[in-house]
């Protein structure tokens, strides 16, 4: 159909490159009907010899053996799994239709292409940043969480091969023996990142993975496994091909991740107990305990796994455990992590030292511990999931990633999702300012900063993870806006980002109360800043893309909330 004269060239370009249509689904825990169609095939050769060969550019030498041979056997011939869309690099957006797109979009795609990492001729991910003006440190590695928006971008542009490569490569790394000092990590732990070392003499590539032994504080990445499961579901949903997820290795990889999270212990809560620095906020920032980012990702990963696990003997056992945990987790988070005007007033009036099952103040939170800022921050209409809830402690800070994932996973009910968007609109200056979007709000400072961060010079007030503004969060905000029917909020945020992001060479983060200044230690040409913008732009152009990473609410998980919520104001 010819393009209207009133349409922009960019709209025309993105229509030509319109991604595969996807639909939101609603999970029925008892039936689990919404699964991609299985592809049955015979597999004979080992992955050790043939992994990803169908996507290779030219002939490759055999892949290296695992560090742990006992866990290294892949019995499937991956050549028999068809790639949904084989295309060469000549058919990239930059080389084909993006000549008509806006200069910022073209620049973004060119930068994203330059960030690609190759392992023996295969594209296996994107590096964290391509800033040659600074020492590389670990910014030359492929991070699991950082690659997620890049993966979405490539899938939207009908290039899912790189995502398949990444999923298989990180799955292989999961089977490595993981040890820090003399302590062995759980078998299901996924790496935080990996890098490719090239030997020019032998013309040979080697992978090196980091499971936390090189990280700040030596903390294992709790979120990596969750992002991996969510990405596997997004790949299966987008391509309509379940053959990758149905591989015995992928099924086992999911079960290993889930086994770490669903194991029984001394916990009295369904939430996951975590250390500081175990997720995007990878430095000491007072998120130890039960951070909302991890709980929301945990919830979403459980729901994705429910759609991907086979109904065999092992799969059925995990399905039952997941279903029970989801009901308990959704009730706990929706009941005790949710804060609105009325609930804030109730906490302000709490009695303490209550005993027995009739206690209202179940966590024995002291009303005097309520921070002054929260009373001014909370509007009469609106609400959000607070940062942390544990005995005698509530962290009232706003965390963007946790709340956006809560919307996308339907951890937040329809009413709660609308309330979160109301809060963003009401507190636009505080949460968005001049550059979307605050990773958390507010910043901690003075004596509290010294105690909580240990005087961390990188997390000073309104900088980095301490109230800094991160452009990567733009894609999460946009997806949440589209799901809740508020695209105008996303459009406004994207326009703000477009005013500076490319001119400033795609910084990692911005500093200041309004996000006005490029971060004092921010890397330029940060890959997920670039990918976050591109994904947000394409989602706004084609809202059906959100179906890749959006789950519909399951009415069975709605708890009979007795406390009032912001939507009744």
Task: Put the structure in a nutshell.
This protein is α+β, with helices and mostly antiparallel strands. The chain is built from 19 helices and 13 strands.
Q: Which tags fit this structure?
A:
569 residues, 38% helix, four-stranded antiparallel β-sheet, 13 strands, disordered C terminus, three-stranded antiparallel β-sheet, alpha+beta, endo-alpha-N-acetylgalactosaminidase activity
Describe the structure.
The chain has helices at residues 9-16, 47-50, 103-114, 144-156, 161-174, 222-239, 243-246, 248-262, 292-308, 313-337, 341-348, 372-377, 400-408, 414-426, 428-431, 446-453, 473-483, 487-498, 527-541; strands spanning 116-119, 122-126, 142-143, 179-180, 183-184, 193-199, 204-210, 338-340, 383-390, 393-399, 440-441, 510-511, 517-518. It has 569 residues and is an alpha+beta fold. Helix 6 packs across helix 9 (292-308). Mean pLDDT is 84; it is low at 1-99 and 562-569. It is an enzyme of class 3 (hydrolase). InterPro entries: 6-hairpin_glycosidase_sf, 6hp_glycosidase-like_sf, Glyco_hydro_100.
């Amino acid at each position: 159909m010819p393009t209207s004269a009133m349409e922009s060239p960019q709209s025309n370009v993105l229509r030509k490159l319109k991604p595969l249509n996807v639909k939101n689904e609603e999970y029925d825990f008892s039936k689990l009907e919404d699964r991609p169609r299985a592809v049955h095939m015979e597999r004979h050769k080992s992955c050790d010899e043939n992994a990803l060969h169908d996507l290779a550019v030219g002939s490759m030498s055999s892949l290296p053996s695992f560090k742990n041979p006992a866990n290294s056997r892949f019995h499937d011939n991956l050549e028999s799994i068809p790639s949904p869309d084989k295309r060469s690099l000549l058919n990239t957006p930059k080389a084909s239709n993006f000549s008509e797109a806006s200069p910022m979009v073209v620049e973004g795609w060119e930068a994203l292409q330059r960030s690609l990492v190759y392992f023996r001729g295969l594209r296996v991910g994107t590096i964290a940043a391509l800033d040659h003006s600074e020492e590389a440190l670990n910014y030359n590695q492929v991070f699991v969480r950082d690659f997620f928006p890049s993966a979405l971008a490539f899938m939207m542009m009908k290039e899912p091969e790189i995502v398949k490569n990444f999923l298989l490569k990180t799955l292989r790394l999961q089977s490595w023996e993981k040890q820090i000092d003399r302590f062995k990590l759980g078998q299901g732990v996924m790496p935080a990142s990996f890098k490719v070392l090239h030997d020019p003499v032998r013309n040979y590539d080697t992978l090196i993975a980091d499971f936390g032994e090189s990280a700040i504080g030596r903390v294992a990445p709790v979120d990596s496994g969750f992002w991996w499961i969510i990405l596997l579901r997004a790949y299966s949903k987008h391509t309509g091909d379940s053959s990758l997820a149905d591989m015995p290795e992928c099924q086992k990889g999911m079960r290993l991740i889930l086994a770490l999270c669903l194991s029984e212990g001394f916990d009295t809560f369904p939430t996951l107990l975590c250390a500081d620095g175990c997720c995007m906020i990878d430095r000491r920032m007072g998120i130890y305990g039960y951070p909302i980012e991890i709980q929301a990702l945990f919830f979403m990963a459980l729901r994705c796994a429910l759609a991907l696990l086979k109904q065999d003997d092992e799969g059925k056992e995990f399905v039952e455990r997941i279903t029970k945990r989801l009901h308990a987790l959704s009730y706990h988070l929706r009941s005790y992590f949710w804060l609105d005007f009325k609930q804030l007033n109730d906490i302000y009036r709490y009695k303490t030292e209550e005993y027995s099952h009739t206690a209202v103040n179940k966590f024995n939170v002291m009303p005097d511990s309520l921070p002054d800022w929260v009373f001014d921050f909370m509007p009469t209409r609106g609400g959000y999931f607070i940062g942390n809830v544990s005995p005698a402690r509530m962290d009232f800070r706003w965390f963007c990633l946790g709340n956006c994932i809560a919307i996308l996973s339907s951890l937040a009910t329809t009413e709660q999702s609308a309330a979160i968007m109301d809060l963003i609109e009401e507190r636009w200056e505080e949460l968005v300012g001049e550059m979307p979007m605050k990773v958390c709000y507010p910043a901690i400072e003075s004596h509290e900063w010294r105690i909580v961060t240990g005087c961390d010079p990188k997390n000073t007030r309104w900088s980095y993870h301490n109230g800094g503004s991160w452009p990567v969060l733009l894609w999460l905000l946009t997806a949440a806006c589209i799901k809740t029917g508020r695209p105008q909020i996303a459009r406004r945020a994207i326009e703000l980002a477009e005013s500076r992001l490319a001119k400033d060479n795609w910084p990692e983060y911005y500093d200041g109360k309004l996000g006005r200044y490029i971060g004092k230690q921010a890397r330029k040409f940060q890959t997920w800043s670039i990918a976050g913008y591109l994904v947000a732009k394409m989602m706004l152009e084609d809202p059906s893309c959100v179906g890749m990473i959006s789950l519909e609410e399951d009415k069975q998980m709605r708890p009979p909330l007795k406390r009032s919520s912001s939507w009744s104001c």
